[in-house]
What we know:
Blueprint: H1 2-34, E1 36-42, H2 47-62, E2 71-77, H3 82-92, E3 99-103, H4 105-114, E4 120-125, E5 144-148, H5 153-163, E6 169-175, H6 179-194, E7 198-204, H7 210-217, E8 223-226, H8 230-233, H9 236-246, E9 250-252, H10 255-259, E10 264-267, H11 270-285, E11 296-297, E12 302-306, H12 307-312, H13 319-324, E13 327-329
Parallel strand pairs: 1-2, 1-3, 3-4, 4-5, 5-11, 6-7, 6-8, 8-9, 12-13
Antiparallel strand pairs: 10-12
Amino acid sequence: xxxxxxxxxxxxxxxxxxxGCSSQESDKTSADNSxxxxxxxxxxxxxxxxxxxxxxxxxxxxxxxxxxxNITYDYKNAQGDMSTxxxxxxxxxxxxxxxxxxxxxxxxxxxxxxxxxTPILITAVTDPKSAGLVDSLEVPGANITGxxxxxxxxxxxxxxxxxxxxxxxxxxxxxxxxxxxxxxxELAEKEAKKLDLELINLTVTSSNEVYQGAQSLVGxxxxxxxxxxxxxxxxxxxxxxxxxxxxxxxIVGEDNSVENGGLATVGINYYQLGRQTGKMAVEVLDGADPxxxxxxxxxxxxxxxxxxxxxxxxxxxxxxxxxQAKRIIE
Length: 330
């Protein structure tokens, strides 16, 4: 009898321990999931960068990281100011984050200078190596990896010649303080010569200078080119206004600027770029080492044309070019 009672006690105690362990494991899993905190820093609000951020969050949700459930996002916008970006980056060092998403080159540089222990995912960064963010594109080193938004500058400039073979002078507007823009301007200079185009550089330091700068190009150029420059794109409507008033074709660096009045681009989709970055973030949260994860690029580029913009700018688009378009905005 005693033996039977003892056996029952052992069974009951064992079950209790198993239930307790199971409960603790369940609590741990729940705690682990709810503890995921991601800091997001963006240099300025404009459609392309916003789309990258939205794509990132969507991809994270697809992988099971749902905001308000098992992950929280601390989103900060530097409003185009580098000192603000640096302040945000320093604050991130105290916030016990599991991961940081830095959108655009200036904010990526600010975070890289301040945060050394937390994994950093970058996106919408044209040339991470030239920006001093990684040791190499193949093996970044340190705590940084992510995606590049390097666009096909040559194909974008070719659009001018396809629209009108007589175009000779192109004005390019960008912020000379943005490494990403300088890289594109240098590429544009190189490719322009091959296309028998003269490039006239116009640099600005803030979005407030964009309208006046664009106006200064009128009468001096046959078209305007805006690369993926954060400062200028945040004020793209100012350039669109000048292009419309002066009948100058405006070629831009990404499709969001076409949606906002640019004539055309051959470029990447920033929403998809954000999703690709999200996939990399999931790998990092699963234990992958950012230092060993190559910088990734979007393979597909699309020709996007805005027909209303063509009308506003007095541009007669060749039928052949229209037939090549992946997307036509009316």
